[in-house]
Please model this.
Amino acid sequence: MRVSKNKNQLNKIKKLSSKAIVFPLLFSLIILSGFAGPNPNYELWKKLLNVDWEYKYSEEFEMDVPLPIFPRDVKKLDGTEVTIRGFVLPVETTDGSIIVSYYPFSSCFFCGGAGPESVVAIFLKNEREIDEEEATFKGVLHLNDEETGLIYELKDAVEANSNF
Model:
């Protein structure tokens, strides 16, 4: 009789301890799932980073140069308004654009293992000085498959959530 009473108490303790673990875990997942929606910025960058390359001879440069082969889902974005968040690179340009990278400066295209598909030339409507920072921009995306310039350009851009 004493053994069965101890077994019952042991079973109750196991049930309580499993509820004590499962309930807070389940509650946390429910709460966090409300905050975790699809990240549109990640989805955009995921598409932009998926580019193939082909080499063609350039008369201007007298050598083979890589030209982008844009997938269908990227071609659909050409000429559409998009919002993109990235890291502003401390690079001076001759065309007045600023360069935004998917990667922070320490591993960007210009200084590490990333490629030209990981940067966008941003042409702001209203020029302003921008420090090396993470920022969000909205504008019209244009694809560039020419021999010069970045393959992605954001024209008529404004800094999102800004008065500029």
